[in-house]
Amino acid sequence: MNRRIVITGIGVVAPGAIGTKPFWELLLSGTTATRAISTFDATPFRSRIAAECDFDPVAAGLSAEQARRLDRAGQFALVAGQEALADSGLRIEEDSAHRVGVCVGTAVGCTQKLESEYVALSAGGAHWVVDPGRGSPELYDYFVPSSLAAEVAWLAGAEGPVNIVSAGCTSGIDSIGYACELIREGTVDAMVAGGVDAPIAPITVACFDAIRATSDHNDTPETASRPFSRSRNGFVLGEGGAIVVLEEAEAAVRRGARIYAEIGGYASRGNAYHMTGLRADGAEMAAAITAALDEARRDPSDVDYVNAHGTATKQNDRHETSAFKRSLGEHAYRVPISSIKSMIGHSLGAVGSLEVAATALAVEYGAIPPTANLHDPDPELDLDYVPLTAREKQVRHALTVGSGFGGFQSAMLLSRLER
Amino acid sequence: MVTGLGIVAPNGLGVGAYWDAVLNGRNGIGPLRRFTGDGRLGRLAGEVSDFVPEDHLPKRLLAQTDPMTQYALAAAEWALREAGCSPSSPLEAGVITASASGGFAFGQRELQNLWSKGPAHVSAYMSFAWFYAVNTGQIAIRHDLRGPVGVVVAEQAGGLDALAHARRKVRGGAELIVSGAVDSSLCPYGMAAQVKSGRLSGSDNPTAGYLPFDRRAAGHVPGEGGAILTVEDAERAAERGAKVYGSIAGYGASFDPPPGSGRPSALARAVETALADAGLDGSDIAVVFADGAAVPELDAAEAEALASVFGPRRVPVTAPKTLTGRLYSGAGPLDVATALLALRDEVVPATAHVDPDPDLPLDVVTGRPRSLADARAALVVARGYGGFNSALVVRGAE
């Protein structure tokens, strides 16, 4: 079945921007949303910076009961989901509910609540045999991250397939990719899909400290996330989420929906190398890019923009640059490539969806967000990373890619819908 | 085509030991021994007790893995060994697993290190050992599988979703996908979370703690383990003359209407979708491997759904998981493996310990295994907490 898939609604919760419009304005302005961690005392940690969302769940439209009950990741999912559904105008009725599914991406689920509940149950880590009497009634919902998908399904009124896709830091792309596959094969006609994560908490910060994956530019938090720069020294942890409404293209056109972009190709590959390490040659990410282009029947030279994974770890930016050269050939030197993580940090399983959203907006508005903080390019990385300033450019086809712990490599091609 | 099985279950390690245990009613449920609690963290569990990690994994991997990953790595190795296949290139073979709650014991230990000793004491492996994607990543690395990879989560329903996604990728051109799921969350914090679900049995009797479709049903016993399968392209499997267990013939998933809507569960729709996808009628299904929540209203909803599709008491229904406890994402793949073995040996394993509620419109197979003649296909049902329904049809080898 040759069904095509389009994005008809976008909802965003991002550092520095709650909502799609402020998100796009932030990205084009090249403003960074990274800062010193404010939500807990980060003094004992190596990396003390993050890209935090100024997010008040009730002001963002949730009830007091939802604000109390839901992990922050769930709050992001509902707020972004609400915006996306309203933006798309898709009506989901009782008799069409089974033709609509949900796929939420997350790397670490309800990790904040799991940590705070743990602290309560164990009296601050004092007891291995914890005291269940101290736990909140919602503890099981935090234990199984599928609760995040259930919340979005109830919000949307969806009764088709509902899932979490949790492929580490590619979850954001992969959740949308999985959703596209369900529409393409005809299982459903529409999906509410996208990633959320709220990892800025002691346990996650400690995890990345332990392997020195995060930046310790603690004295200059606003410029700490430096993809492709000589002075890059790790990623800046972020949080947030983006949810999109995906529809079968003909149905979307028929109902007169606003169409941001078509998703023409998607692929994922494993690198089978190391849980946190990357081979410098980028072969598996290149294979994912090639497979995504093949599925969309496009050539490398068609690509007008690449939204990079660009975490600003030493190995990632090298790995990715190799992958672009390997998959796009000479065109890799001509195509503009940028990393919005320079501005919004790395929100693990959410960021891939924020990047799909940014890429769709680039297609829609004909503009390319810059790589902020790129004052001093790494001479080993010799592609056009769109330093500091956004560019106006017609974007007919754009790639977005991701790479994650566990070896996950994903790529997706977004295009202007040809009618 | 399913060409290899790897099983880690509370009542048996490996296909032979597990299948023998199921047919002979050997119980894997016993007193919870993983830690010493006072009963408020559960009394019974289906623990994998005869698995010695050192026998299966190098030291380097032991330090960085939760039990759920150790079991999954062993199961994947057995499945691949049994399948005996080698893909034409690493990029042609991938891994798709499910998880319900990640490597929780590892997570609890590192939370304890952080909160009792400080950030410097958190393991360098914590960044991946407890996250939901760990089994896919570790299996891929261990066997150099660089093709399509993925991880799905839908509590107990997720394991079937993973197998269906594996079939999707094989249809899309992959030669081989290693797929299935293994879970383990029997540490104190994991048990505390499960107690809070309100669905755990309070019983301390290993033969009466988990009684789906029984008037005494009062929650389930949690277990650990699951199954990993090799899902291969049919032509390729035939070309190399592989031994084939059978195939994943159909799949359907649905999500229940919101709580309080007054509308019935959408489980029947998932089953009907799976049958239609397989091109089969209800009458083609020789046996149903039920979800068996052992929560009265959930049992009634499952019975009603099955009766609406197949007719009341028209198809044998079984739940061998009464010998293992509920294995969360591991349960679906283990039931799929069991269904394939049942079709191969033309026998329906019994639902141990259960005295079926006569008011439920089900033909529950109890007591001794029941023989099957000319069985072509079986249905496996799995439901995830919150309203997730998945159904998968398997066909036996031709």
UniProtKB/TrEMBL annotation, chain A:
On whether Ribosomal protein is a keyword of this UniProt record, the answer is no
One GO cellular component term, please give it.
cytosol
Transferase as UniProt keyword = yes
Q: Which Pfam families match?
A: ketoacyl-synt (PF00109), Ketoacyl-synt_C (PF02801)
Q: Which UniProt keywords are given for this protein, alphabetically ordered? A: Acyltransferase, Transferase
Q: What protein name is recorded for this chain? A: Beta-ketoacyl-[acyl-carrier-protein] synthase family protein
UniProt xrefs under PANTHER family? 3-OXOACYL-[ACYL-CARRIER-PROTEIN] SYNTHASE, MITOCHONDRIAL (PTHR11712:SF336), POLYKETIDE SYNTHASE-RELATED (PTHR11712)
For the biological process aspect of GO, one term held by this record is: fatty acid elongation
Q: Which family does it belong to?
A: Belongs to the thiolase-like superfamily. Beta-ketoacyl-ACP synthases family.
Q: Name one GO molecular function term.
A: 3-oxoacyl-[acyl-carrier-protein] synthase activity
InterPro entries documented for this protein: Beta-ketoacyl_synthase (IPR000794), Ketoacyl_synth_AS (IPR018201), Ketoacyl_synth_C (IPR014031), Ketoacyl_synth_N (IPR014030), PKS_Beta-ketoAc_synthase_dom (IPR020841), Thiolase-like (IPR016039)
Q: Which residues form the Ketosynthase family 3 (KS3) domain?
A: 2-416
